[in-house]
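We modelled the chain as a single entity of 289 amino acids. Its sequence is:
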Amino acid sequence: MNDVERKNRKNKVLDIKHLPPLSATTTQLLEMVSDPGVEIDLLAKIIANDPGLSARILGLANAAFFAQVNPVNTVKEAIVRVLGLNMVKSLAMSIAMCGAFDVTKCKEFDLAQYWITALGCATLSRQIAAKIPAAERPDIDGVYLCGLMRNLGALILAYRFPVEYGGVFQALEQDPMADKRILEEQMVGLTMPQAGEWLADRWHMPLSVVCVIGQYGNRDYTGDYEREVLIVGAVSDWLIRFQCGEACALRDDERLLQRVELEPVVLDEIEEAFREMWDEIRSLANGLV
């Protein structure tokens, strides 16, 4: 694929007019995501006005994962009693944005697996961030959002290039050890991080999210969002091995030990807790499809 063809592929992503239109709910949630002063009642009202989104948020809040004795019946209850304002804000925006993409033409794209990876990455990234000493700790809810949106580009590729992106998955099925990025570049002309970064920037998502998406795989990144990039990148890499059944441990990642300065025993505790909740995360993800 030559430079002109690559530029044309990039323009197909950047051309927002040709992407699915954002719903009124999604537009409002995007405006709220960077607003730390958003009111609970306003957020709950916006979500409640979208029956499908409301049902998914309530489904998450009532899941066994959160171990609620009494049922959660309203979005406001979900925010106050279970999930918290920032988590609901992140989840609602992610669900609403993903719902804008019709990926059914890409038969090889597994939407359930998309959500499993997104929720797993967000959950584990948040757990790691929460253990970092307060003086060095990034915003843990911001890290959760970064993990949740890290693979946003996959939806764009499945939506805009269903045949080509389907070919990537076919190639990976034949050779699981192949480099997915190289396949994306060769067969689509864009990689998942490139597509996700461009769209996140165009939709004015928080700069931390744009950076984490775009810098995925860059182990040498230094800058304002170094810890977010490091944590989400390390978790993404570990999740790939974990889901493939490989023997792997978070403590094996020197980046987390040295640059985030977490003790091996702390990473072991985080990993053990995450493994115990993995089946629930998978169940939650399947409920979002």
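As a brief sanity check on the tokenised model: Residues 21-100 form one domain. The longest helix spans residues 264-286.
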